[in-house]
């Protein structure tokens, strides 16, 4: 088992990693530890591990690290594992993974497998990017793109609230052209999700189920700071999907075509539209669910 650790994920997570590693060692699992030094390193380390036949690659970090590891092992025989050490840890909450490092390590050792179907985003500039939980275009992506990462490390998810307040008065709320399985729509923001949850443990798409093919797509028509702030207030109350100006639809293929609108994938800045989103061709096996 290869453990890929992102030391910049979450805050002061090294001690939590050590506790998990101790449990894995105690169970006789001989985990090999590799630490990232920059963005993209988790994907490289995971790809190299899978290429030399490591059967399990564990993402020790947050959703961005998970997405990188998933991308690195895609198409190989390696399974993905998760030690949730990030800030929001949406996938871990979605799958009901334990947050305590000892319990999370125990789950990895027990080895129950589930299959996920990550999404694949193909951008207009030729980039392709895998995401495991969600991809957003519009307001939430602007918040992610301009987030102060040092502040996030210090105060965690409160940094998103702070950045939202800063973004509200200046975000342009330009319309985005959305095509869902050939049917056209317009929205000012869109979130394409594989799971129910968003920004931690908050419900966005109550009917969604990780592992199923296709996507649930939340389209937002809020055109200004007040209606957007109300959506932000509804999120922690789990009322987001029932708010006026929010539509939840399903699609197997999503095209967002308006150029220049910011995009986030699994909570990390991912450039700008246009993008076409479909399922990855094959499933991804996740261990420890
Ligand atoms: N050593 C590193 N230095 C700088 N950035 C890194 C390093 N290792 C990984 N990264 C990048 O850090 C980004 C954020 O990490 P990650 O998403 O795992 O943590 P998080 O943002 O705290 O958690 P969450 O996404 O669950 O809120 C990842 O997308 C990854 O590309």
UniProtKB/TrEMBL annotation:
The keyword Transmembrane does not apply. PROSITE patterns: DAGK (PS50146). The keyword Signal does not apply. GO terms for molecular function: kinase activity. Residues 1-127 form the DAGKc domain. Gene3D superfamilies: 2.60.200.40, Probable inorganic polyphosphate/atp-NAD kinase, domain 1. Keywords: ATP-binding, Kinase, Nucleotide-binding, Transferase. It comes from the Bacteria. It holds the Pfam family YegS_C. This is Diacylglycerol kinase family lipid kinase. It comes from Plastoroseomonas hellenica.
